[in-house]
């Protein structure tokens, strides 16, 4: 799996020449190649489920995570198109777009109402299979995504002020986690 590039401007991603193909291979190539492997058997059986893990960062341009967000946008786009192509053949393709889940990638931020542990998130996301082809995976993430879209439209998030606000929030989250780990 590709190492997380952290939060930085595209040209400041450490070892960019390696990070780009790693991220593309991990988030894009693996999804298409695995689909190529499993889909023929599903078509033959006329049933199957493919669950692809995208990210909320793939729904909108994501300053400081543009490479990650772009590869996750591909996963979502690919999944939605594949769902339309194969739904009539009994195959469910679901795109899952989580927000923060407590993992190494999110600095193991403490779970709370809006941050799920990986286990809790997976359990809740599996409950959405067959209900929708595109999901935040759990109710708390769906609510947060809805209000972020409503209160922080894309034009604002991509403005200079919105960019500074996001940068400060990301840094504060990372610093908060670092301080709590030292305790």
Automatic annotation (TrEMBL):
<keyword id="KW-0752">Steroid biosynthesis</keyword>
<dbReference type="GO" id="GO:0005783">
    <property type="term" value="C:endoplasmic reticulum"/>
</dbReference>
<dbReference type="InterPro" id="IPR002347">
    <property type="entry name" value="SDR_fam"/>
</dbReference>
<keyword id="KW-0443">Lipid metabolism</keyword>
<dbReference type="GO" id="GO:0016491">
    <property type="term" value="F:oxidoreductase activity"/>
</dbReference>
<dbReference type="GO" id="GO:0006694">
    <property type="term" value="P:steroid biosynthetic process"/>
</dbReference>
<dbReference type="Pfam" id="PF00106">
    <property type="entry name" value="adh_short"/>
</dbReference>
<dbReference type="InterPro" id="IPR051019">
    <property type="entry name" value="VLCFA-Steroid_DH"/>
</dbReference>
<protein>
    <submittedName>
        <fullName>Uncharacterized protein</fullName>
    </submittedName>
</protein>
<keyword id="KW-0560">Oxidoreductase</keyword>
<keyword id="KW-0444">Lipid biosynthesis</keyword>
<dbReference type="InterPro" id="IPR036291">
    <property type="entry name" value="NAD(P)-bd_dom_sf"/>
</dbReference>
């Amino acid at each position: 799996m590709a190492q997380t590039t952290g939060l930085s401007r595209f040209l400041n991603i450490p070892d960019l020449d390696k990070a780009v193909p790693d991220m593309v291979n991990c988030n894009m190539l693996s999804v298409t190649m695995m689909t190529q492997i499993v889909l023929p058997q599903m078509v033959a059986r006329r049933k199957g489920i493919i669950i692809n893990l995208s990210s909320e960062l793939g729904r909108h341009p994501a300053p400081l995570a543009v490479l990650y967000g772009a590869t996750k946008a591909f996963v979502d786009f690919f999944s939605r198109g594949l769902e339309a192509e194969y739904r009539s053949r009994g195959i469910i393709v679901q795109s899952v777009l989580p927000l923060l889940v407590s993992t190494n990638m999110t600095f193991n931020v403490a779970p709370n109402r809006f941050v799920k542990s990986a286990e809790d998130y997976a359990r809740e996301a599996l409950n959405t299979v067959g209900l929708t082809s595109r999901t935040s995976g759990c109710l708390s993430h769906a609510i947060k995504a809805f209000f972020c879209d409503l209160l922080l439209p894309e034009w604002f998030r991509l403005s200079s002020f919105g960019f500074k606000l996001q940068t400060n929030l990301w840094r504060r989250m990372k610093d908060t986690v670092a301080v709590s780990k030292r305790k």
